[in-house]
Amino acid sequence: MVHSAIHEDTARDGRSDAVADDAVMSMADFHSWFNARARVNSFQVDRIPFADLSGWDFEPDTGNLVHASGRFFSVEGLRVRTDRPWVGEWAQPIIVQPEIGVLGILVKRFDGVPHCLMQAKMEPGNINGLQISPTVQATRSNYMKVHGGAATKYLEYFRPGSRGRVLFDGLQSEQGSWFLHKRNRNIVVETDDDVALDEDFCWLTLDQIRRLLRLDHMVNMDSRTVLACVPPALARPDDRTDGDGSFVEAVHRSLSGRGRSVHDPGHILSWLTEVRARQELVQRRVPLKEIAEDGWRLGHDVIDHRDGKYFDVVAVAVEASNREVTAWTQPLVAPRQSGLLALLVKRIGGTLHALVQARSDAGTLNIAELTATVHCQPGNYADAPAEYRPPYLDYALAAPTGRVRLDVVHSEEGGRFYHAQNRYLVIEVEDGFAPDPDDRFLWTTLSQLMSLLSHSNYLTVELRSLMAGMRSF
Question: Is the pTM of this model over 0.85?
Answer without folding.
Answer: yes
